[in-house]
Please model this.
Amino acid sequence: MESARVLLEKSMPDLQARHAHSSSSRAAHNAFARRASRAFVFLCFGIGAVAVAVPIVLRLTGGPDTSISQYYWNDDARDLLVGMLCATGVFLVLFQGLSRWENVILSLAGVSVIVVALVPVDESGDLSRSIGHVAAAVLFFLCLFVVAVFFSRNRLGLVEDERLRRRLAMLYLFAGWSMIALPIGALMIAGMDKAEGNVIFWIESAALYAFALYWFTKSFEYSKLIDGSVGEVLAACVME
Model:
């Protein structure tokens, strides 16, 4: 018994050291997980912010134009248009959702919007001469429609507040259907040559804002899942 007690006493410092190391490792892991979660929210918010900026920046730098795509032929706005669309595309390709198919569809959306940026609409605005540009734009919004309407349900199950869950679902549905209805409406108006003034520009801007709404809603949802407001999470991202 005496020898066992002595052995136990000798081993206590080693056991305490191991326990302290395990606790510090767990704390470091938790801190990293919080930072990673905040960075995820920051990325979602950033994608939405870029989308909001596109129509505003183009309008301020290039003046009024008939459509967002037409700014490619505006010397003052071309580089900004291409840069913001390509940045959005890269973000979407790198973004990781909660399933393989969500990642595939978001990556396809990212590639599509890069094609939109690099394969311009015909300078005359003739859509029959801009098949590649139009097809890529439609595919971009179609992919986001699918993600917003169908894949968002997989995450909403993690939201415990039923009332909040219903509101988030409504926002995702509104954003998703807007992202498909508005571009189709713009194409129909343009195809019938009934576009007057900047009507196509404003419809396309509304579609981009629906895209932004999707990402802002995702930011809000994830911030709630990590127990904080969007503002608190973004502030933490900047400060850390």
User: Anything to note?
Assistant: The chain is about 80% helix and 0% strand. The chain has a mean pLDDT of 82. The radius of gyration is 24 Å. The chain has one domain: 2-239.
